[in-house]
Each structure stands twice: as C-alpha cells, then as structure tokens.
Amino acid sequence: MSYNQALSAYRETRVRTASQGSLIVMLYEEAIKQLGAAIELMDDDFRKNTGRIELINNHILKTQEIITELMASLNMEAGEIAANLLALYTYFNQQLIEANIEKKPEKLQFIRNMMDQLRQAWAEAVNTTANTTPAQKAPAGIDIAG
Prior knowledge:
Blueprint: H1 3-17, H2 20-41, H3 50-72, H4 80-102, H5 105-131
C-alpha cells in the first residue's frame, strides 16, 4: 500500500468513525483551509493569470459546498440557534458569491475569521461533551422504609 493510499484510508476511517460534532468541526476546518488557499492566490498580479482566477473560483465554490452541507445538517427543530446558524450560513454564501465576482480578499478573510470562531466554539462543545459523559451511579442500597 502506497503512502497516498494509506493516507486516504486513514482519512476515510477518521470520517466514518467521527461523531456528528467532530464532522461539523472537520467541515469548518476544510472551509477555512479552502478560504485560506483562495486568499493566498489573490496577490497583486492574480488577474493576469487566468489559471489562478480559476483556482480561486474553485476554492470559493468548494467553501460554498461545505456551507451548504452545514446548512443541510441543521436540525431546525432545535430552535433559535439553528435558525441563527441558517441565517449566518446564508449570509456567508451571499458574501462568497460577491467575493468571487469582485475577487475581494477582504470579504474572504472576514468569512474565514467568522468560520474560525464558529469552529473553535464547536470544537470546545465537542470536547466538553466528550469529557462529561455521565458516570454510572452506584446503587445506594435498598430502601426498606417503603
């Protein structure tokens, strides 16, 4: 098995065995990575190279796909938090469309920063939930007083 095959198998196993919260964190991490790659490609001379424009577009589109997946994963019965996240994700997608048309790295950086804050919050929630599994309570004894 080659290194690339082993790495691919590891990543697939990691995703298949991850909790729902961990998967959400992974989605945020990938979106942040894609935005970072798009921002890096937007230097002073990027408009002179059509290949770079296409790469920037691809990174932004991948980020939009991830945000759409995050939107689809929302449990709208959960109430106000889900509704707020849906509104935020919708805003992110709208800003990404504008940033892709205008090729403005500032808009991408803003979304990247916001997504990093959300990623940190989700990671903390996942770690807190994983570390606070309820302990089994030992039986206190038989109540014979009736």
